[in-house]
Amino acid sequence: MQSELSYIDTPSLLIDSAKMERNLQEMAAIAADAGVALRPHVKTHKSPSLALRQLELGARGVTVAKIGEAEVMADAGIRDIRIAYPIVGESKLSRLTRLMQMADVSISLDSVEAARGLSDLGGHIDRHIPVLLKINTGLDRVGVMPDEALEMAKAIDSLPGVHLVGILTHEGHALKEPSREGARQCAIQAGHTMAETAGRLREAGLGIAEVSVGSTPTARDIAYVPGVTEIRPGTYIFNDYNEVTLGVATEETCALTILATVVSIPSNDRAVLDAGSKTLTSDLLSPPSSRKGYGYVKGYPEITIARLTEEHGILSLQDARSRLEIGQQVEIIPNHICPVVNLADAMYLMKDGVCEGQVEVLARGKNR
Ligand SMILES: Cc1ncc(COP(=O)(O)O)c(C=O)c1O
After folding, report:
1. What is the mean pLDDT of the segment spanning 252-256?
2. Domain range holding 253?
């Protein structure tokens, strides 16, 4: 079975440009309608050209996790960068000095130790570095509990080289919910917790201008919670099977697929793709689901990508030899898109099934 895409070597990442553009415009419209700023997390696409498109559509700035990602964005001319990750350690602080000469940088943190490092740097370069206190609204990763926020905020605010401008959370635990309604409740709860926390800090005299929240599963609901000023979704640009399972995306709104080739059908209940964990990653679905495996093979809902080794994706299916052919290409919607993109040098831009160019993943691998 010769595919229309047989001129593209596999495994490859394909972006459906029209779907991506619709996803970008939809989120920009939600932020505008809700009256909040949009600051997309670029961890999903890791590509300055796509970040620039998000800015063109009205995003206030970008969010990154690592200084290395911020450096790539700043080198591309992006001037408003929020690092939603605590910056700890001398070598990162010295890279931050250079970064701050190129862009307006703000940083989230959850400790006096991290704030002190930034304050010392601020004193050294004669700047007040904008910081946001990270609040734990349920993900239990980093962040202070809401009832500890006031004490921590006061301690940070008393440091001379930083300026506490707001509070920030990532309500990523919504992705563990069993349904769209569960994610909605999670969004509303996190939004209220953030608004109340900001209110308490303001009553104590702290200048909390920003209440920043963010995740794709919650964005459509949390943007409308009064008191929220900014949303930071990332995954929405492409979506993935996690979002489909949760009910905030559909197969139709998944804009990125992995093109792979069937390279072996060793038995009638097993076939092998040339995409293993080096392409698909080993992430399983996050929301509770009866669907198992390492991605969704489009057009074959009954096939499970049951096992992976680095370069092999082992499919489990009935009647494999009559349903698939060696050399056949298939498209896979990954479970979790962000780490998949991180493993690719480039993504192909597809329009009406034709490759029109490529996007380089310039910020891949930037884990420092
Ligand atoms: C701090 C932070 N903000 C925003 C996001 C974006 O969330 P999502 O990938 O659900 O769009 C992430 C994702 O991991 C994150 O860690």
Report:
1. 98
2. 248-360
